[in-house]
Design a protein that fits this description.
Shape: elongated
Strand content: 25-35%
Radius of gyration: 22 Å
Bound molecules: biotin
Helix content: 25-40%
Mean pLDDT: 90
Length: 336
């Protein structure tokens, strides 16, 4: 692994040599094996081995022409984030990882090793991406956005109330910024386009919520994924599928961080109650009849909105009840 290197002034950390090689070829021109070897500090035959590895993996396809060198067969769009995000309200360090089990798990490990928050991580690929309710988050190489932001929370529950819903608002705004229309939310934070899931949010807490703790805000956005086999059990889409256009993941990442900065700023200063109406306007199933699943238990009710803490308000048998918790999920009733 190459640690804390730099390509064209952009910060990179934990990139594999194959990933560095792809970044050299990113300009679409021919590069000789010798020149690539010099940049990577390896021999020409080591370069050839890495090219064979990349071609075999299916991550990219590289042409080899005698006397000219190597050239990418198709355009690729590697992540090239700036080392530091500077927003209006917050700033944080950004780390780029090539392949990781889960950016949330890695953020947790970094917190446990004493790295101080805030910091963000973005990866080209996750091998064990985590979804809500113990699900797996399909995370192929170079196609989507896998992002985690670790924040320190020192005002306990007050600072966390409604937070996961607010992140959903930031994600839909970022998607609108890159040209996706008709984006809406499904409580608590599924992001949908025409009923198909385009993005998900997973918040994980560590520490003592009565005192000082950390929250890891994990966001997965399907960007350029066009097929996923049968791995995803629910209806899904991506920016590519929704708009018909490949999206620049670097622009999407910038949009996401700017919107997180904006919405976290509003949430931190004014609380979720200031964003509740906006959230309800974006809730696809507002007023609809739903089933709420909590493990084995299923509750039938009508959605009336959310409360100031982000809990779901359902009218069940004529009486309003409130529900919150990470294990809950909603399903539309056929007759609504
Ligand atoms: C969901 O099930 O809707 C939540 C999906 C969250 C996926 C993201 S991808 C980046 C971060 N790392 C993970 O392992 N999960 C989150």
């Amino acid at each position: 692994m190459i640690q804390a290197g730099s390509i064209k002034g952009l910060a990179v950390i934990s990139l594999s040599p194959e990933s560095m090689l792809l970044r050299i070829l990113q300009d679409g021109r021919f590069h000789s094996g010798e020149a690539i070897g010099l940049e990577l500090g390896v021999s020409r035959s080591a370069v050839w081995k890495k090219i064979k590895k990349i071609n075999a993996s299916g991550i990219a396809s590289i042409h080899c022409v005698k006397g000219r060198g190597y050239k990418l067969a198709n355009e690729i769009n590697p992540l090239n984030p700036e080392l530091h995000f500077q927003g209006v309200n917050f700033s944080w360090a950004v780390g780029l990882i090539d392949t990781v089990d889960s950016t949330n798990a890695e953020a947790l490990r970094r917190l446990n090793s004493g790295i101080s928050a805030p910091f963000a991580l973005v990866a080209e690929q996750q091998t064990a991406g985590r979804g809500r309710r113990g699900r797996n988050w399909v995370s192929p190489y170079g196609e989507n956005l896998y992002f985690s932001l670790a924040l320190r929370v020192d005002q306990g529950m007050r600072q966390l109330e409604g937070l996961s819903l607010v992140i959903g608002l930031a994600v839909i705004s970022a998607l609108k910024n890159v040209g996706v229309s008709d984006v809406s939310l499904k409580w608590p934070n599924d992001v949908l386009v025409s009923g198909s899931k385009i993005a998900g949010v997973l918040l994980e807490l560590t520490g003592d919520i009565a005192d000082i703790c950390h929250v890891i805000i994990g966001v997965g956005i399907n960007a350029n994924m066009s097929t996923a086999g049968s791995e995803i059990s629910q209806k899904w889409t991506s920016v590519l599928r929704a708009t018909g256009l490949q999206t620049d993941r670097n622009l999407l990442l910038t949009a996401l961080q700017n919107q997180l900065d904006k919405y976290l700023g509003l949430h931190w200063t004014r609380g979720f109650s200031a964003l509740k109406d906006e959230w309800e306007r974006n809730h696809l199933w507002q007023g609809r009849s739903v089933f709420l699943s909590a493990g084995e238990k299923q509750i039938s009710g009508r959605v009336v909105g959310v409360d100031a803490s982000g809990a779901l308000r359902l009218v069940v048998d004529g009486v309003e009840q409130r529900f919150s918790g990470g294990e809950l999920s909603l399903r539309l009733q056929d007759d609504s």
